[in-house]
Amino acid sequence: MRLTLLALLASLLPAAEPRLPVPAPKGAVMLFDGRSLDGWDIDSHWKIVNGELLIDASVPHPRCRIHTKDNFDDVQLHLEYWLPLMADKTGQARANSGIFLQGRYEVQILDTYGHPPEIDGAGSLYKIAPPMVNASFAPERWQSYDITYHGARFNGDEVVARPRITVIQNGVKIHDNVELQAFNTPNAKETSYARTGPIVLQNHRCPVKFRNIWVVKAAR
């Protein structure tokens, strides 16, 4: 009985906070190692500073995104990000960015530290599902996402399984094998599920920084 109670209590505790940066495992595809952006289609609104990928918010531009040159299907993605303190901003203007799987589904990056879970807040599957808990840290500190994504499954042209996604933010599971019934994050106009697609980083006019981005193939 004592062991069972201890196991139950342990299961209710939050996951241990990861020590960052997290080393890429053997066999990982390194998407950003602090030196090269050769694997990305990139423009002048993004730059490497001190080994970190920085959105240059000082350059006038529309909302723009960069994406990997390679496409991915089932992946485990690790990404570390840093949010500026934008104390004079509120809502979607406060340290906004995002990471997209298959170029379709956005895991929101936003400073909503201390807020309850929101469908467009930090850790949300943007406008699809809020996180189970808001595990964000305060801005001006490195944070992490570990995302396991499984793309749709097809039998010919028939979809036999929808995409699924699990997200761990700062060591805490915030989405658990969520089935994605939409074809994409809202605001896009897709009419079918993707068979493959790039990983995308969003530029939303906020000086967000990234580092240590890598993927491994996810087991199904």
Could you characterize what this model shows?
This protein has a single domain, classed as Jelly Rolls. It is 5% helix and 36% strand. The chain is built from one helix and 15 strands; from the N terminus they run H-E-E-E-E-E-E-E-E-E-E-E-E-E-E-E. The strands form three sheets. Strands 1, 3, 4, 6, 9, 12, 13 and 15 form an eight-stranded antiparallel beta sheet that branches. A hairpin with a 2-residue loop joins strand 3 and strand 4.
Features:
single chain; 220 residues; mainly beta; Jelly Rolls; 1 helix; 36% strand
Relevant CATH superfamily: Exo-inulinase, domain 1
Helix content: under 10%
Strand-residue fraction?
A: 35-45%
CATH class, named Mainly Beta
- As for the number of domains, it is 1
Instruction: Please identify, by name, the CATH architecture.
Output: Sandwich
Distance between the termini: 35 Å
What is the C-alpha radius of gyration, as a whole number of Å? 18 Å
What is the overall shape?
globular
CATH topology label? Jelly Rolls
